[in-house]
Design a protein that fits this description.
Blueprint: H1 18-53, H2 58-79, H3 82-89, H4 100-110, H5 113-133, H6 141-164, E1 168-173, E2 178-183, H7 186-201, H8 204-231, H9 241-278, H10 286-291, H11 295-299, H12 301-324, H13 326-343, E3 347-349, E4 355-357, H14 358-363, H15 365-418
Antiparallel strand pairs: 1-2, 3-4
Amino acid sequence: MESNTTNDTTVEYHIPGAGITNYFFAIVYILCSLIGVPCNILSLMFFLNTASKVSSAANKAFFNTIYLMTSIVDILVCGTLLPVIVSFVRQRDPAWFSVKALCYTWGFLWEMLPFMSVFLVVIMSISRTVILLKPRLQLNRKVLIVAVLLYVAYLIGRTALPLFTRDATYEYWISEVYCYEMAGADWSYKFNSISRSVTLAVPVVPICASCITSYVIILINERRQNFKRRKSSDSEGGGKPKVRHAMNATRTIIIFTAVYIIFNIPVFVNYLLMSIASWSKCENDCYWVMFGKYPFLIWYSWNFTYIMCFAMNSTINPMIYYWRMKPVKIYVNDTVKRTSQRLSVTWIHKPNNETVYECDKIRHPEVGESAASKNGVLRESAASQNGVLKESAASKNGVLRESAASQNGVLRESVDSQN
């Protein structure tokens, strides 16, 4: 993979099913961008708004921070697909990737995003299992932030080391349809393949173990709850709310983790094959020599496993939030409703209480003038009615005063005559 076998864009390669498949990949990436970016932005807004509300609850704040970081990673994944889309639409032409600065920036960023996603899923799954085993344990959000920063520093160092030693560079690969780090030295090639494979392979064990353990704990707790419900006559609500909430949160994380595993097994397998090829003795590119007879592995597998699977995973994550988290569903529904009302608003209230039909006034001036004239007539009618009411009230008050004065005069005269 690190040779010049498939990164020479001046050579015309025979790519099976290139036309239709390229457009298919482009359509999938367009959908991931159009759906994933706004959905993940809504999720990020929710977790940002929730951060201050759950700050007093340590465990809720801990998991809220993980979801917030995951949303940021997913936004970056779905938001950086445009150069890949353009290259696929132009039948694997470098297009935007021909700009060296963009190629380096995009390649460097994508050397970290997938692995950052792996790290967050590991922390999430292990932390939930620990909480199930020790419900009274309080997780520290500061420790999480420090761990994430240290891991980011590791990813930056691992990615930048071959660049600083000038043993690697980023180039566009027509087989992958994205910019990839091309190792110039043998040690750099082996270092990259092994480090990536280990970084992807090692987390699979704790993730799977955590999922299985959490699932077993859920089954045990549910059986206990069912036994208590049968034993207690006044327990008709389906168990304590806290227990139900913990079980639902655990199920959400299990689903989230399972989806992650499904989408990331292919890239792990690909990196494993790459690691095997890197330690094989070949005169040229061992990956090409070993797997060149499988066109899919050469021309489609890397883009599918490394870019498309991560993009689809990032697009599905906010859907899981919406499906499994009731507060997220309420927040998204309210936000979409308010936004749609603002976009389709017809009456806009002015500071002077003047109501104007702005949309139709722009499209149809006569309608706007008619609405304004009607509003003017209504205001004049209301003012005249108020004036009549004021005059009527004043006249009534005058009559009442005169009647009261005359009555007082008669009473005084009667009193004087009696005296």
